[in-house]
Amino acid sequence: MLPDTDELAEVLLDLAVPHEDIDELIASRRTLTADTGAMRLLAECAEELVRDIGKIIEYGDGLQLGERVADAPVALRRFFAAYVFVAALPHARAYHRALGIPVDISRRTLADLGRNMVVHRRRHGSAGVQSPQWLTLHFRGELYQLGRLQFQRANLWTGAASVLAQAGFDGAAGTPCLDIHIPEFLGPLTPAACDRSVALAREFFALHHPEERYRAAMCHSWLLDPQLKRYLNADSNIVRFQERFRIARRGSEPADTEPVQFVFGDPELAVAGLPRRTSLERAVGDHLRAGGHWYMGRGWFPL
Fold it and tell me: Quick one: CA dihedral 66, 104, 261, 28, positive or negative?
């Protein structure tokens, strides 16, 4: 189920796992393979993860990896999700090959494991997998990295359908749509980079998922909070990104930890001490220090 020690190191490199984490993962492999119960749990998780690979599943269905990690021995919990993804890797790659997905797109998509582990170390100072549930999308064939952006195959849910209708989208619940996600550590969110990603997505999904006709791309993010336009220049990358979308509305509940998490690296940082080095840092921090709140925005554009 798991590669041997030498092969495991190469697999982890392919998944962009940070070099400083690889030795710990290899050393912990011995603890894992010697524990019959942990290996049984690993097999169950990997099997459940890829059981219906390629199928779009509703939120809350399928493998709840974060919950299953809690069942692993304490000494293995930090790394257990990474081992699950390594065990599922041959299935994910085989699924990609069967669809004719280019090797470089497959590699860049699955390398989000390494990005996720970088976030964990930045936030907690140690190796680990920050958001294991998020990564199940990549290894199930639901999400792909296409240039600067990530695109998730999705079906419009009832609440989103009613919200987007207010911004002119004529689509019922269940309509196939692409959810856009903005990964970290990939440079600026320039208009040219976004144009290229959207063009790649149109071509990619028409070729590899021709049975699914995606009429629109959606995004649900604090980056679509219209308040950002009060602080950023009209030609800023974030404002230009917002203008791609027909904004439906912003959320009703504050989501202040979202920009703090993604701009400064830790959602628990004290607002008073947030740095002011860039225009975005000043926008996020000054708005919060003035007693304001940030909200999740939702928008769409036609494909």
Answer: positive
